[in-house]
Amino acid sequence: MRELNKVTIGDYVYPLSFSLFASQKIAEKFGSVKKAMKMLNKPSSDAKQIALVCDIAEILIQNGCSYYNEFGFIPWENSPLNENGELIPISAKRILLSCKQNQIQQLANTLNKTLCDDQDKKITTKAHKDSKKKKHH
């Protein structure tokens, strides 16, 4: 299992993950991942930018929690757990309520790092020794 970036919001530390699931959610909301990343990198503190940061954070946190809940994890200090020991994601609204104005740019930088780092993931395949190519007649 890979180690995920984490972000502190309020009293909890949340995992961030960018996968195909998150990519699909971001593209549905913003048109494309590339467009969302371009908007994320604009230094601004207007309402549209703050909403964008919180929406992307919600998606990456939801994906990070799902990843760790699916593949197992060892809880860390201040991890947001339910009564079953599973990570609970945070909503964009709750992020807005928990963050201060001066934290938005730091959150945007962390999100951007996660988006860039996770796009560099490599997938490799290797043929099994016993596999043989099928001949098509």
Number of strands: 2
% residues in beta strands: 5-15%
Q: How do the strands of the widest beta sheet line up side by side? A: 1-2
Uncertain parts: none
How do the helices and strands follow one another from N- to C-terminus?
EEHHHHH
* End-to-end distance: 42 Å
Overall spatial form = globular
- How many whole angstroms does the radius of gyration measure? 18 Å
Structural class determined from secondary elements: mainly alpha
3D architecture notes:
It is a single chain. With 137 residues, this protein is mainly alpha-helical. The protein is built from five helices and two strands. The chain has helices spanning 20-30, 33-40, 47-71, 92-98, 104-119, and strands spanning 5-9, 12-16. It has a two-stranded antiparallel ribbon. Strand 1 and strand 2 (12-16) form a beta hairpin. The radius of gyration is 18 Å and the shape is globular. The termini are far apart. The model has no long low-confidence stretch (mean pLDDT 86).
Descriptors for this entry?
137 residues; mainly alpha; two-stranded antiparallel ribbon; 5 helices; 49% helix; globular
